[in-house]
Amino acid sequence: MRALGYLVITGGVLLSTVCGSSAQPAAENGPAAAGTVVRQGTVPDDLYTFGGRVVVDASITGDAIAGAGELTFGGSTTGDLIAAGGRLAASGRIGGHMIVAGGWVSLDGPVAGKVVAIGGRVQFGRTAQVTDDVSVMAGSVEIAGRVGGTARVGAGHLLVLGSIDGDLDATAGDLEIGPGAHIGGRVIHRGPEPPRVAAGATVAGGVQHLPADVPSPPTINPGVVGGGATLLAFLGLLMLGGVLQSVFPDYTREAGRVVRAHPWSSLALGFAVLVAGPVALVLLMVTILGLPLAFAGWLMYFLAMLLGLVVTAFALGGWVTIQWPRLARGGRTRRLAPFALALAVLLLLGWLPVAGGAVIFLALVMGIGGATRSLFQLGETHPA
């Protein structure tokens, strides 16, 4: 279930400004301003919620997974809080881990597990109580509460005003340990200047400063990188084509035939799917009843993206087979040769200045149209 949460939140964040929904609705929804999703009451299972602005004040038996432009978590959960968005503020009780990413992240409540946070600015308020370790990467980090384990921080600026029971392992351009701060273990700092430790701060294990060694960026040959990426793309698409030809031979043959027989209508249909598909799926996700269909639709949409070049390569490979029928005879590997040749030609054409990108785009869109038309049996069956 937790792995599903990571998958769901990825799509939810992309749609957070246009929809708000929950796979497991709360017991009641409180009053809210327009565009605000409020979850209150008791949730006997995991909570999934997305929106432009989300307020969670519910008691959740399980994990809370949220994506929002602005998230306020003041409830409680027996599991993890997994969230991403623009502004994230958590003051409720978290019974598991807190895993968040946002432009601005603030914690002012208890966390029974670990905290993993990535953001522009991350703040642990004075009432923040983390039982286990903390791992943070941000532009600016402030720790004013209590960390029960080790704190590992990567930041441009790090300010410690609270207490860390374990070690502080920091890679920071600037580290300041303020008055009244307490570090129960060692301070290991990697940075250009030694950390500033104020009078009244205590570091039980001592301070170790490791001057930052910033290596010169390696010289990278763009041609080598691009060639490697093209080779990987070829091998991956070749494997996908081989699997499709083995498992769905009739479909791959029909999809290629549709592209050859109806190139312009396939191009038009592919462009319509490419542009109108996401719009239709977002509108479908607005309604809770349409949510399962929308997720299935997104899966099919991304599958169509993968199939685009493959189907066009099958179409070109089919044309090669028509010109040289002997290639259609023989074992599976020999029958795959025309497809492999067509795929290689398409990817090599992609290296052409300016025109290469257009070739790949048109091939992708035409293949999407052919795949869609064949899937819904819009084409007529004719011999290849």
Question: Characteristics of this structure?
Answer:
384 residues, 2 domains, twelve-stranded parallel beta sheet, six-stranded parallel beta sheet, 30% strand, elongated
Summarize the helices and strands and which ones pair or pack.
Elements: H1 2-14, E1 36-39, E2 42-43, E3 47-56, E4 59-60, E5 64-73, E6 76-77, E7 81-90, E8 93-94, E9 98-107, E10 110-111, E11 115-124, E12 129-130, E13 134-143, E14 146-147, E15 151-160, E16 163-164, E17 168-177, E18 182-183, E19 187-191, E20 196-197, E21 202-203, E22 207-211, H2 222-247, H3 249-261, H4 263-285, H5 291-323, H6 332-349, H7 355-375
Parallel strand pairs: 1-3, 2-4, 3-5, 4-6, 5-7, 6-8, 7-9, 9-11, 10-12, 11-13, 12-14, 13-15, 14-16, 15-17, 16-18, 17-19, 17-20, 18-21, 19-22
Q: Return the average pLDDT rounded to an integer.
A: 77
Number of strand segments = 22
Determine the strand fraction and express it as a percent band: 25-35%
The general outline is: elongated
N-C termini distance: 46 Å
Radius of gyration: 27 Å
Percentage of residues in helical conformation: 25-40%
Helices and strands, in order, run as HEEEEEEEEEEEEEEEEEEEEEEHHHHHH
Q: Which stretches are poorly predicted, pLDDT < 50 over at least 5 residues?
A: 1-34, 214-220, 378-384
- Tally of alpha and pi helices: 7
Number of domains: 2
Structural class: alpha/beta
What is the makeup of the main sheet?
A: 12 strands, parallel
